[in-house]
Amino acid sequence: MPKADLTDLATRLEEHLGDPHDPGSRMSYRTVLEYDERETYPYDFVGALRAWGVPEYALPGEQGGRAGDVEAEFNLLRLVARRDPTTATALIITNLGFMPLWIAGTDEQKRRVVHDVLHGYRLSWGLSERASGSDLLAGAMTAERVDGGYLLTGEKWLIGNATWSDGMTALVRTSERGGPAGFSLFVLDKRTAPVGTVAELPRERLHGLRGMDISGLRVEKLFVPESARIGAEGQGLEIALKSTQIARAQISCLAMSAVDTGLRLTLDFTEGRVLFGQPVSDIPYSRRQITECFADLMVADAVSLGAVRALQVAPEQVSVGSSVVKYFVPTLMERSMSQLSVVLGARFFLRGHPHYGVFQKLMRDLLVANFADGNTVVNLRNLGQQLRSLLVTASATPKDDGLRRTARERAAVLYGITRSMPAYEPWRQELSSRGRDDTVLAAPDGINRLRALAEEDKEDEERDRLSRAADVATELLDHVGSLTTRCEELRSRLGRDFGQCAELFDLAKEYCLVHAAAACVLTFVHSHEALEEPLPSGAVLLLQLERLRRHLRPHEAVTGESDIDEVMRVLRHLHQGDRLFSYWQFPLAPRTADQAAARH
Questions:
Q1: In terms of DSSP H, where are the helices of 207-317?
Q2: CB atoms within 10 A of CB 420
Q3: Residues paired with residue 5 on neighbouring β-strands, in sequence order
Q4: What letter would DSSP give residue 162?
Q5: Are 325 and 303 in contact (CB under 8 A)?
Q6: Which residue stretches of 345-429 are H helix?
Q7: Are 217 and 201 in contact (CB under 8 A)?
Q8: Nearest of 11, 27, 185 to residue 96 by alpha carbon
Q9: Which end of the chain has the least Cβ crowding within 10 Å, N or C?
Q10: By percentage, how much of the chain surpasses pLDDT 70?
Q11: Is the bond into 426 cis (omega within 30 degrees of 0)?
Q12: CA distance 177 to 90
């Protein structure tokens, strides 16, 4: 979708939903908090967003939906989640439940379910079970073959929308021996199930997303016809894993939106609060804390940009990008939200505050992004299993090799927000990237482009910042050499135990830093011409890279006071202009509510 069209779509949704601080708007913080306090499912919010058409952007256009580029759905959900992550999660779950059909369903299956979803049908995504959790190969729900179909028996637990939904896409054991080829996927229709074959499990009370329906289903000899199976028998695990890759790339929007609103609320406070004769925003320590969180959010924005666009541009590499974003972004955003809470002070602790009360809800809600559809350990393990081949390719491939040329071409599309993408074909995903990560492979070219931009810039300060940013990015990219050496030493020392060792998880975390640094540079060089004032900014890029470098050198700064002042200028411009804290800079609903509460 062209940038102008996506901006128009986002603007229309924002205008429709209105100022969340206005109690009379369609999704006000007052109502959001009331639902949270009562642990009430947001039926009216979900219904209103369905009527507006948000779910249609997650359904294939060939079968009646409106999905084209995946980033449309991602960004619409981001705008919903900045008001209420619970509502966004409720919408995401039906999308996830449909994804196996998009990947491997027949045209008839897809048309039928798309039609049903457009007319109110709701799906849940049934992977986890009480005894096995994330270990999908240990799933115990079984399917017994009978004439015309299967009899399903077993239980799925901790499933979003399990009670509220009309059906469930479930991973079920079709071979007694199990194993990678021992599972299949089925769509269970609760509406047509005979009495006594389906029991809804009690809803679980939650720390965050308190209004969410997280429950489960128990089925006993539930008949499902052969036509309800998705893909071939025994193909279920592969389809499910591909579906989770998509989920991992998209769920980061929940954490990013929470921090966007958290930062906006914190600025409302620090811009108006005077301490020691000056606004809190102008106190050097507070200013650095705020700008660092903004830089973290922009890092997450760059990483997510590449990961989401890779679903279309480089589907064979999604196993890397989706795991990086699913581990790194929620972890980073959790830290940023905690840092903001310190700046906001006592007000973040006041659940009933008319302006700041929503902060504590968002702080709780964003935690779901850490474990939904693959927790931190699962994603680091997936990266660890591919790490050696990723590092060897990144360190040993010559700069003029065809792999790097292809990576450079793809990076221009992955990180260029005005570049058109190929058609979305989720069935082209692969479960291993075979050592390819175009983001890291294209990073040297990105740094060269950054240095060229520095030389061309006519402003001395900006030229200096871009040059320093290129130096920091080079240092972070050179970390690939150290990672490769340590990885090889670890493998040589541990042998067969290498794949399960704790040290491998730490190496995977460091690889995420390299990938994130590359994403920041590539976003700057490939999108800078499309960005609107106050972006692009060399000061913002420099602080982004400093924040990544501090994971390795926590007490060394590369920015000075003037750099932080410039980042604060950028942040103020976006905040005062009611723009999303993102490279997209979508216009947000104008503030219409009385701002008096923000001053108390």
A1: 236-272, 284-313
A2: 10
A3: none
A4: T
A5: yes
A6: 358-365, 368-371, 376-396, 402-414
A7: yes
A8: 185
A9: C
A10: 100
A11: no
A12: 35
- Taking a C-beta distance cutoff of 8 angstroms, is the pair 512, 382 a contact? no
Strand partners, 225: 149
83 token code pair? 């008001």
* Single-letter residue type at 350: L
Among 44-53, 220-229, 275-284, the minimum mean pLDDT is found in 275-284
- CA atoms of 293 and 344, how far apart (whole Å): 13
Q: Which residue has the tokens 């989720």?
A: 426
Q: Using a cut of 0.90, tell me whether the model's pTM lies above it.
A: yes
**One-letter amino acid for residue 5 of the chain:** D
Q: Give the model's pLDDT for residue 275.
A: 83
Rounded to whole angstroms, the Cα distance separating 330 from 221 reads 39
Mean pLDDT computed over 250-271:
96
Which single residue is written with the structure tokens 């980061």? 252
- Does position 521 have pLDDT exceeding 90, yes or no? yes
Average pLDDT, the chain: 95
Query: How many Å apart are CA 320 and CA 318, to the nearest integer?
Result: 5
Pairing mode, strands 167-173 and 183-189: antiparallel
**Whether residue 60 has a cis bond before it, omega within 30° of 0:** no
41 vs 259: CA distance, rounded Å: 23
Q: Among candidates 73, 162, 152, 89, which has minimal Cα distance to 125? A: 162
CA 400 – CA 513 distance, rounded (Å): 25
Measured CA to CA, the distance from residue 238 to residue 93 in angstroms comes to: 19
Give me 281's structure tokens: 């925003």
